[in-house]
Amino acid sequence: MDLKKLLTRSLSGIVYCLVIVGAILLGENGTFMLGVLLSVLACVEFSKICHDLNSKNVPVIILDVLGCVALCCGVLVWPLVSWIGIMVVRFVTELYIKSENPLRNLGHSMMTQIYIGVPLGLMVSVADIWAPNLLLALFFFIWINDTGAFLVGSMFGKHRLFERISPKKSWEGFFGGLFFNILAAWLFWRYGSGFFGFDTVDGSCWFAIGFAVIVTVFGTWGDLVESLYKRTLKIKDSGNIIPGHGGILDRIDSFLLAMPATFCYLLLLS
Fold it and tell me: Taking Cα atoms as reference points, which of 225, 218, 214, 232 lies closest to residue 250?
């Protein structure tokens, strides 16, 4: 990688991280706005890589985006009612599109809601129910895991983690990311338990370590799942909205599985 590409990748990565951190630090409203932004970008990008982004499908894409935005309003009654209404309209819409493969279209819409909308809705719910800064810990664990896995895997990786889907990932990289996350969890608990909102759930060190392990395992699976999609669609990146990093789905792939798992973990310990 030449210096110009490295600089572009570094700057765009910093901007992306600052947007995430800044939105979460704004509290519940900032987290909601972040959820809406990611919903719109991810839904459009997913439609594009599935070759559904055309004038004929604009009403469908709008309904998918509205469904994800409704889910981003959290676990309140009216957002859920709104989402159910949008999904009913989405099914009825398929009657009038006259598509050759309506089941495929509906499958894409349902997958958009489950794969993209539900995790982003749970993200907003964590900010509402517990503390927004728990999400900071989640994103930091994802980024630390990615960095640790890359560094350790690059230096010591010999045993392939899932060669059929992602030939470059190794078990050494996975355990390297896990080690760095456990270390980060201890540091977060020791010096920033209150800041990261651990006290709103369970202030113990074991809670922080469990949090890190959950994010590491499910974040890795999330990365592999998106790699599976890209291999199936025969594409390298989901998009190019973030220079040097690819699409928005390439950046939040770990989050999309780590977030539901984290939400369940928080519920169990609350």
Answer: 225
Give dist(CA 123, CA 226) in Å, integer.
19
Instruction: Provide the β-strand partners of residue 170.
Output: 160
Amino acid letter at 191?
A: Y
**Structural element, H or E, at residue 166:** strand 166-170
b/e 136-156 (16+ beta carbons within 10 angstroms → b): bbbbbbbbbbbebbbebbeee
Tell me the per-residue pLDDT of 156-214, one tens digit each, with 9 for 90 and over: 988 898 888 888 899 999 999 999 999 999 999 999 999 999 999 988 999 999 999 99
pLDDT of 218: 97
Q: Dihedral sign for Cα 84, 85, 86, 92, please.
A: positive
Cα distance between residue 53 and residue 40, in whole Å? 13
Collapse the DSSP code of 237 into the 3-class scheme (helix H, G, I; strand E, B; otherwise coil) and give the result: coil
- The model's pTM: 0.92
User: Would you state the torsion angle of the CA atoms of residues 264, 30, 40, 68, taken in this order, to the nearest 10 degrees?
Assistant: 40
